[in-house]
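job 3f2a | input accepted
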Amino acid sequence: MTPEQAQAIYAAGEQAVIECLCALDAQAQAAQQKIEALQRKLAQREKNASTSSKRPSSDDLTKPKKGAKHNAEGQGNRIGGQPGHPKHTRPAYPPETLSKVHEHRSGACPHCAGQDILWLEDVPPRITQQTEIQEVVVLREEHRADAYWCEGCGKVHDAEWPEALRKEGLFKARLTALVAYLKNVCHASFSTIRKFLRDVVGETVSRGYLVKLITKVSQSLERPYTELLERIPLEATLNVDETGHKDNGDRFWTWVFKAELYVLFRIDKSRGSQVLIQVLGEEFAGTLGCDYFSAYRKFMKDVGISVQFCIAHLIRDVRFLTTLPDLPTQIYGKRLLGALKALLQVIHQHEALSEEAFGAA
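job 3f2a | predicted structure (361 res):
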């Protein structure tokens, strides 16, 4: 608005001025609402793993790196142990586990070359220890089924293989367990396992045989897996989470059920609460530790169980409140963060406090 236009409105009288001011105020309020909506949308887009439940790999990798920490002299910390930190050393092997002990004695003093040396029996020796693997010993066995002539049916037959031998196949129990460990614990590919067996064990096998071997191991674990599946609904506390992955282009979800003494995995095409119903049942009476995902909230509502939502997720959501544009929300978020920090301090002091003091805190 130009000064001439403002002068014209003023000259038009009181009513014209009131209408103009009300119109400008409405425009200002609409603009302010739009700005706040855009700021909230921007804050949502800038969410990362520290202010939400997003996985760290989804964070922007181009964000600036944090500056180096500086010491009292204004210099960056050196690589390695820092002043004031306790020294961490590898514990020595117990004497009963040693295969051999070597005694080392000098013939002369390394400082003055003198040979008048008195060995001190009351001073413990300086010790360094080593470990080594022996040559990999592979036992290769051959089983022979002799042929015989049957007078009854007039045919030649071979002797029957023992049932245990037939089930074992080429690789016996220990070698089969090693392959399963490399695949399922070390997450090695079949090609990497083939190279290991070839170069270290001296055994050449195909990828197809390794696949059959892993399948056999999986089938052998079916019974103990079923036993754990039957036991898990009886647990008093369980922590549950799920993560997605693809297999030959199909979407699957790996569910993790963490009990006190064991962990149970279940792979399913569904991420819904029906998986919880199938695994835990509708009579589950324990406490479930989980995040805010809708499947857990639906299971809590349908079954009526106690749920302990993840404190780490709660802290991230509260941190997000502190990044919003309006000041009251920021203040509220900071107050919640302070309360959560005090809560965690009490939890960390649980072992040092008596039951009465912990309850009062």
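job 3f2a | Residues 171-220 form one domain.
job 3f2a | closed
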